[in-house]
Structure formats: structure tokens, C-alpha cells
Specification:
single chain, alpha/beta, DNA Cyclobutane Dipyrimidine Photolyase, subunit A, domain 3, Rossmann fold, 3 domains, 5-stranded parallel sheet, 6% strand, binds flavin-adenine dinucleotide
């Protein structure tokens, strides 16, 4: 299976989901760490770019796995989907970790301009010219395809940090630019996890033998670091309460879509009156360097697809807002509305929210009510994502129960 930017539609996501559903049970549990390379990644779903934009949703994936394999055999797959939920929820409880990352990334990007030796090492890493087998291949694969297998991501991050001794924030920024699934929470917190910052003192050391096994014998890198001392960094702040979520209004409203939720027709009833729909691009805000051409094209196509489906669902032609004057265009769109009520599917912490929140504040100052509405999935799971993953994992059965996702039931929400 090969990902291409023109495949960024819900229909493509569903096709991939249906193709992979028969493998979500024992095959996934036993083989998910093996990355045979190229187009032969049949052991994992490669659904993350679709999930990132919610072209398809977590309940759809989990329900497919449980329906086909039963709750027990599907549990490994369900747990992995819940890692994404955990990271999203954890960052919502610790938003300062995102802002600290942005500060550290910007400092490191500045250092690159001043420190020639750092710049040379950084360039050789991102171009795949370090001479380290596997690492160089993954650097090229990342740029060429916008996707890396989870084990490749872990090994890449570990070698970046402990063998090449490059700053983690620059690696995380590189991933955000290039991954089609580039996600502020999963990406930042996974890099922090490898670095020993997320689970204090616990780092991930990439070893030759594990890389040989997980790359299906393709790579056997020499000269890897044999120690992984935790990276210096501030301790995790105490969790703060989740930002409150709003409810859907009964009066007419305007709908503002972002790359964070592109299948609103699955959960916002068509009986509600939507006066107008706008979809705003924000992939260019993933990094000070923007997003790669592939990632921008994927997100752009996803935004078009999501806006189109929402338009059909609510009977309102969508407006696509993009470009450097997007903020002004958004204010202009709002000025032409009859309603003073704007609904935005909840935007988690990240570059998109950093871009949009000042404009939403301006709209509020101009008398608009802006409601951010969360999906039931996030409402049920996120309260369990304050501390470690295992606390959330324990709650998976009861959360699925609360959401009405049980064996033999096919949820499509
Ligand atoms: C350094 C590093 C950076 C990462 N950056 C991102 C990122 O920007 N965006 C992103 O979506 N994931 C990220 N991940 C997590 C994980 O690697 C990907 O979600 C997974 O590889 C996606 O491939 P898949 O869809 O084939 O996964 P599958 O194995 O088929 O899993 C199904 C779904 O479960 C979720 N999932 C699986 N494993 C993880 C995990 N370890 N953490 C979080 N969610 C998971 C994903 O949404 C995935 O689509 C990162 C991991 C590491 C180690």
C-alpha cells in the first residue's frame, strides 16, 4: 500500500480500513513491529494520516477491530489506537509542554544559523548522509513518502538523540514538517518519551539487534550509542483541568472546519441549521518551515474532502480559506454571516490552534459566540489521560462501554 496525496479522502480511508480489518487481530498483535520496507508494510494499518484529520475516527477503527476479531483478540490494536487518544488528552492537560517545545524548537532553529558544525550535522541527518544504515534510509523514506513505521520512528529518534547527539526539538520539528500524520501531541510526546522527558529518566535506546529484527533483516547499523542518558529538560508540569467543551447550539450557526476534524457529518446532526461553512488551512503552521509539499497536499485534499461532505450534509456550499491572508479572509467570511454563533470542532493544542486562537478572540471581541465542541470519544477518554498511559489503558473497557462500543456492534460515528 502506498500513500499519495490524492488519496486524502474519507472514501480512501474507509477502503484502507476495510482492507486492513482482517489483520487487526492476532496478525497485528504478533507482527506489528516488523517493517518489511517499501510498499510491504502489511503488518500495520497506515491509517494514521486519515485518523490525524479524522477523515475516519477512532470509534470506527476500534469497532471494526472488535467486530471482526472480538474484544480480546483486537485488544492490542485497540490499545495502540488509544495511545493516540492518550497523547492527545495528556497534552490537553499539559498545554505548557507544547509551548515549551515551540520555544525550544525556535531557539534550536536559531542556533542552526549560528553554529556551522551543528548545521552540518543536522543537514547530514535530514538528508540521510550520516553513513548509518537504516537511519539514512528512514530519512529518505520520510521525505519521499511522508510516512515511517512506528519502530523506524523510535529508532530514528533514538539515533538522532543518542548517537548523533542532535537536539530533540529539531527532530520533532522535522517529523511535523514531513509526516502526513504529523500530530502535535503524538509527535512531541513520542520524541519526549524517547528522550526520557515524558516518563522521567526512562529513555529508548535503539539497538542493532532490534533494528535487524524489526527491519526484517534489511538494516544492521554499526556504531550506535550504547547509552541513552535522559535529555535535560524541565520536569512535566502538574496536570491542569481540561479546557471546558461547549455544546452544540440549537439555533442557526456557522461552522468552521479545520484539519483536526474532517468528518463532522458523522456526529453533528443534519437537523441542526448551518448557515455557512468555512474550512481553514493550517498545515503551513506545523513548523516555522511550514509543511512539506506532500504533507500540505495531503492536508489540503483532506480539507477539501471534509468540507465537501459537510456541505452536502448541511446543504451549504463551503468556503475554503487559505494563504497568507487567511486570517483576514476568515474575518471577512464572518462579517458576512447573519448568525453571531460559530461552531468549531474542538482543536487540540498545536500549530493550528496557535494560528486560529487569536482570530477567534478577535471574533469574540466583535460580538461572536465561538463554541468549541468535542467528540464523545475525547470526552470519555481524555479525563483518564492526566498521568501515565497505563492508567488510561485500564479504563479502555469501561470507556468503550460508556461509548456503546461492544463486541458484535458496528459503530460508524
Ligand atoms: C518519534 C515518534 C514520532 C511520532 N509521531 C507521530 C505523529 O506525528 N503522528 C502520529 O499519528 N503518530 C506518531 N507517532 C506514533 C506512531 O508511530 C504512529 O501513529 C504509527 O506508526 C502510525 O502508523 P499506522 O497507522 O500504520 O499504525 P498502526 O500500528 O496501524 O496503529 C493504528 C493507529 O493507532 C495509533 N497509534 C499506533 N501506535 C501509536 C503510538 N505509538 N503512538 C500514538 N498513536 C499510535 C495511530 O493513530 C495509528 O494510526 C510517533 C511515534 C514516534 C516514536
Amino acid at each position: 500500500m502506498k500513500l499519495a496525496h490524492d488519496q486524502a479522502t474519507r472514501a480512501q480511508g474507509l477502503e484502507r480500513l476495510n482492507d486492513f480489518a482482517p489483520l487487526m487481530g492476532s496478525h497485528y498483535a504478533g507482527r506489528r513491529n516488523i517493517d518489511a520496507g517499501g510498499g510491504r508494510k502489511a503488518n500495520v494499518s497506515q491509517l494514521s494520516p486519515f485518523l490525524r484529520h479524522r477523515l475516519i475516527s477512532e470509534p470506527e477503527l476500534v469497532s471494526a477491530a472488535i467486530t471482526v476479531h472480538g474484544a480480546e483478540a483486537a485488544f492490542k490494536f485497540v490499545q495502540e489506537v488509544c495511545w493516540r487518544t492518550y497523547f492527545n488528552g495528556w497534552l490537553e492537560h499539559h498545554p505548557a509542554v507544547w509551548s515549551d517545545f515551540c520555544i525550544s524548537r525556535d531557539c534550536q532553529l536559531e542556533s542552526l544559523e549560528k553554529d556551522n558544525s551543528l548545521k552540518a550535522d543536522y543537514n547530514s541527518a535530514i538528508e540521510g548522509n550520516t553513513g548509518i544504515e537504516g537511519f539514512d534510509d528512514w530519512a529518505r523514506e520520510l521525505r519521499e513518502t511522508g510516512y515511517l513505521h512506528n519502530h523506524a520512528r523510535m529508532s530514528f529518534a533514538s539515533i538522532w538523540l543518542f548517537t548523533l547527539r542532535l537536539p530533540w526539538a529539531l527532530g520533532s520539528d522535522l517529523f511535523l514538517q514531513h509526516l502526513l500524520d504529523g500530530d502535535p501531541a503524538s509527535n512531541t510526546l513520542s520524541w519526549r518519551w524517547v528522550a526520557g522527558l515524558h516518563t522521567p529518566g526512562k529513555t529508548y535506546l535503539a539497538k542493532k539487534e532490534a533494528i535487524e529484527t524489526c527491519s526484517d533483516g534489511r538494516f544492521s547499523p554499526k556504531g550506535l550509542a550504547d547509552r541513552a542518558p535522559a535529555v535535560d529538560g524541565p520536569a512535566n508540569p502538574a496536570p491542569s483541568p481540561l479546557p471546558p467543551a461547549d455544546t452544540l447550539p440549537q439555533a442557526a450557526f456557522a461552522l468552521l472546519l479545520t484539519e483536526d476534524d474532517l468528518s463532522v457529518e458523522r456526529w453533528i446532526p443534519e437537523t441542526l441549521e448551518v448557515e455557512s461553512i468555512a474550512a481553514i488551512e493550517s498545515a503551513s503552521f506545523r513548523s516555522p518551515h511550514g509543511a512539506s509539499r506532500k504533507a500540505s497536499a495531503f492536508t489540503g485534499a483532506a480539507l477539501n474532502d471534509g468540507a465537501h461532505r459537510a456541505g452536502v450534509h448541511f446543504g451549504a456550499a463551503p468556503t475554503l480559506i487559505e494563504g497568507i491572508d487567511a486570517e483576514a479572509l476568515l474575518l471577512d467570511w464572518a462579517a458576512r454571516l447573519k448568525t453571531r454563533l460559530i461552531v468549531v470542532p474542538y482543536m487540540p493544542a498545536g500549530g493550528g490552534w496557535d494560528r486560529l486562537s487569536p482570530v477567534l478572540k478577535t471574533l469574540q471581541a466583535e460580538g461572536f459566540e465561538v463554541r468549541q465542541v468535542r467528540r464523545d470519544w475525547d470526552e470519555v477518554f481524555w479525563p483518564h489521560a492526566r498521568k501515565g498511559y497505563f492508567k488510561l489503558r485500564k479504563q479502555i473497557p469501561s470507556c468503550l462501554d460508556a461509548l456503546g462500543i461492544a463486541e458484535g456492534q458496528n459503530i460508524d460515528g
